[in-house]
Amino acid sequence: MNRMNLVALHRRPTLVATCTMAALLAGQSVIAQSNATVTGTVLDAKGNAVPAAAVRLTPDGSSQARTTTTDPQGHFSLSGLVGGTYRIESSATGFAPTVRRVSVVSGQTADIAMTLNIGSLSTEVNVEADATNSIAAALAPMDALLDARSARTVITQHFIQNFTSPVADFGEAVQMAPGTFTTNGNGVGLGQSSTYFRGFPDGNYNIDFDGIPFYDTNTPSHHSWAFFPSQFLGGIDFDRSPGTASTIGPTPFGGSIHLLSKNVSPISNIRGQVSFGSFNTQLYDGQYETGSLFHKKFNAQIDVHHLQSDGYQTWNHQIRNAGSIKAQYRFNEKNYLTGFSGVIWLDANTPNFNTTRCQMYGAGSNYACTGTLAPFAGSGLNFLLTDNSDPYNYLNNQYNFYHVPTDFEYVGVHSEFGKNFILDVKPYTYNYDNSEKYTNATPITNSSTINGSKTYLGITIAPCNVAVVKKGVTAIPCGVDKYNSYRKYGETSSISQVSSFGILRAGLWYEWADTNRHQTPSDPTNNWANQALPNFKESFWTNSYQPYAEYDFHVTRKFDITAGTKFAHYTIQTKQYADDGKTIGGLGTNDPASFITNSGSYSAWLPSLDGNYKLKSNWSVYGQLATGSVVPPSSVFDYAQSASGTPVKTLPKQQRSTTYQTGTVLKLKRVTFDADFYHTRFQNSYSSVLDSSGEPVFYLQPSSITKGFEAESNIYLIHGLSLYLNATVGRATYVGNLAVSCVSGSTGCGTSAPQLSLTAPSGLWVANTPSDTQTEALTYQHKGWDFGIFNKRIGTMYQDNGAYHNQATIDPFSLTNLFFNYTIRSGSRFDQTKIRLSFNNLFDEHNVTSIKLAGTAATQNIAANGTTYVDPYNTVGQTPVNGGDNVGVLPGRSVMLSVTFGLSPKR
Asked: Phi/psi at 315 (nearest 5 deg)?
């Protein structure tokens, strides 16, 4: 063996030892670098632990991920990590995924808290159904939530798309909810619908879209057919209470209908729908989902549709062209933008009144009819439309037309900061532009001269070129040129902070509006030539401010209390032009260019307090005390004024309501049940007397009490078959006495200003408040099939005749709807293709749903210092039935067949 080999042999143990030592040191280094740990807790938006949430940890620059799930307390831990920066994502069924970034240091532990937000209204319902293992909750067409603080019904997108007509509006989407009913005389989605619940008419409750209040500026009422058809809706959160302090809007008086847009989808999809139905109704709809674009940062959905129909009422045609787009862009996991725009172009021939009893039924046993107008017949209302050149044919569609374009836009900014702070800001604008020309079908009464007139069914009509002195006003009675337009700009902002103690919320709603309105007598047979002076012409500007703050305190894991308040402040400035005496008068000049100005402001503090206690994971009870208000309408300035424009001395106060309610929500595997008791005291309206200078002095009318019991349940029977029931019983009656301090020289008060006591008899019902309601439904939802039959019964109601209460009775009526749907849900290229058949008013009922009385109630006066004053609160019996009464009826049976063609990427 040579020397070199000996040397190599001698050195080999040393080399091996060295390599071994180096390997050990390297291993110790790696172990030292891999001893970092990430721990954390996954919570929902209320601070409750989310068990079984998936947690995925991915180092930057690598696709090698570590995963785990949270324990029953929402905790997780991942150890043995190398120091560096990681992307951590958490998700759970029904929640939107949340992504955070975390930096870890070798040898140390990083602790992180992650908050999961509900992905949508539909997924919030699914979360509860999954958490409680309730099949009945998953299949309920409408349901309450376990965290409810008030009587709240969730109406999902699934219900809207399968158990309403494809042409329905939002009013018809809520009509099956507890205590609620909706009427529309021209057929589903084919005219302005009216919704009532708990004795509150339209204008006495909020409606908002994605948290943005929308309403008219002259009174806080709504236009169901002109803003949000079912094609725009992704769900409805229906709260029959004034809500919490964060419930913004002009009228959190009786409740809130929170409309929600559809969620954008991460999956690309194209759908086209064709619908044909009764009254020559046709709907063509196209929808496009872009799916995730630009590195999964951008999603958008687009809907365009065309609706046309002859309507149920003769000559009440409808044409609607509409489109919407919603888009979302995510800058990162914590910051994103959402934008929405909806545009509607609506044309209609709606007459400005309902048909009379004579036109509907002909002569009756207790009323007479004269003239030649045809009675109700066929599928519509026939009004003697034999000769379009005859100016007396004032019901012809060429003399009645509306043009109503609207638009609604917002941009939402969402940002999440450290310490679980979340900021949401949403600037918006929307416009309503209603241009109408219609024939004036109001009977001419108290007229001193009528020349060349004709009489149809007791309605006296004069030719358009004959001046008629009507109640002291010289007017052209045949036509009306009417315009109502407003543009609004506003924003909603809120900041919240989630902690283990609860959720702090604070925010502000602000809105500014510019309104222009006029109504002018016009001659439809002379190219719609207008009278020199209008009935009214005005512009006004309004500002609304509502700052609020509330705290949702998690007293225990089972008990939450929310307390807060908001400050509702509203201002109005008006500019009113001289008119023909119907509103403010000629201002001493009868110059159409002369005008006066007025202004006013209203404020109210509206506190709220509620609580929710979980008796078990699937059973909760709640209680609420909440207040609401209604801003007075712009008409408080509508009184005879002089050129100097003396302002109103005493503006009316905001109408107020105070609601107490308590309830429970239970979700078993095969049964859901919720019920509530409610008691609301509210001030219905106000009246005024004129002082010696002719200025009005306002005072609130007597209050009324609405109280009752509501309950709903869904019972799972077998294999997708469920029975849904809800029922309400209650009373809404006037109570108390009213004392008015008359002003010296005012009408009915004499000269010595006596105290005038007006008594509002207890027990008189608030108009349009049914004694009871019931909904019964049988649904089958399995695989691609959705079948449902729904029946709504409305109990006895009363109608008022001007200032007199309970002058007419509306007997109970029912509405039955039937729906068949089959949807392809295979994940194929034709996913979401659907066949849809719907029947509204299945049994073709024509019950009376409203009455505008033409007869006169007997007069009841009270003495006051030798003068008389008509008591506007009392009644001396119902008004006799009159052939001229305007009546609304259930529109006849309508059938719609729809086919939706879906095209999706193959999955």
From this structure: 65, 25
| The residue to which tokens 């009417």 are assigned | 482
Residue 856's pLDDT band (cuts 50, 70, 90): low
46 and 109 share a domain?
yes
* Per-residue pLDDT tens digits for 608-619: 999 999 999 899
Task: Note the pLDDT of residue 478.
Answer: 64
Cβ 793 vs Cβ 811: under 8 Å: no
Look up residue 169 and give its DSSP letter: B
Residues 6 or more apart whose CB falls under 8 angstroms from that of 77 comprise 37, 38, 39, 40, 68
> To 5 degrees, how large is the angle CA 478–CA 473–CA 690?
135
Q: Per-residue pLDDT tens for 67-98?
A: 888 887 788 888 888 888 888 888 776 566 77
pLDDT one-digit tens code per residue, 391-413: 444 455 666 788 999 999 999 99
**Does residue 83 lie in a domain region?**
yes
How far is C-alpha 651 from the chain's CA centre? Answer: 29
Q: Are 402 and 352 in contact (CB under 8 A)?
A: no
CA distance 26 to 547: 62
User: In this predicted model, what pLDDT tens digit does every residue of 6-22 receive, in sequence order?
Assistant: 334 344 444 444 444 44
Q: Could you give the angle at the alpha carbon of 651 between the alpha carbons of 645 and 656, nearest 5°? A: 155
CA distances from 357 to 54, 191, 375, 478 (A): 66, 21, 9, 22
Residue 108 lies in a domain: yes
**pTM, rounded to two decimals:** 0.83
Q: Are 724 and 714 in contact (CB under 8 A)?
A: yes
Angstrom distance (rounded) from CA 879 to CA 851: 11
Tens digit of each residue's pLDDT (9 = 90 or more) over 307-358 = 999 888 877 789 999 999 999 999 987 899 999 999 999 998 876 666 777 7
Q: CA 413, CA 411: separation in Å to the nearest integer?
A: 7
The answer to whether the beta carbons of residues 47 and 73 sit under 8 Å apart is no
Residue 73 lies in domain: 34-118
- As for how many domains the chain has, the answer is 2
Q: Which two tokens stand for residue 30?
A: 């790696």
Judge whether 154 lies within some domain. Answer: no
Closest to 796 measured CA to CA, from 765, 770, 815: 770
Residue 5, C-beta contacts closer than 8 angstroms, at least 6 positions apart: none
Q: What is the DSSP string of 256-323?
A: EEEEEEPPPPSS-EEEEEEEEETTTEEEEEEEEE--SBTTTTEEEEEEEEEEEE--SSTT--EEEEEE
46 and 95 both lie in a single domain: yes
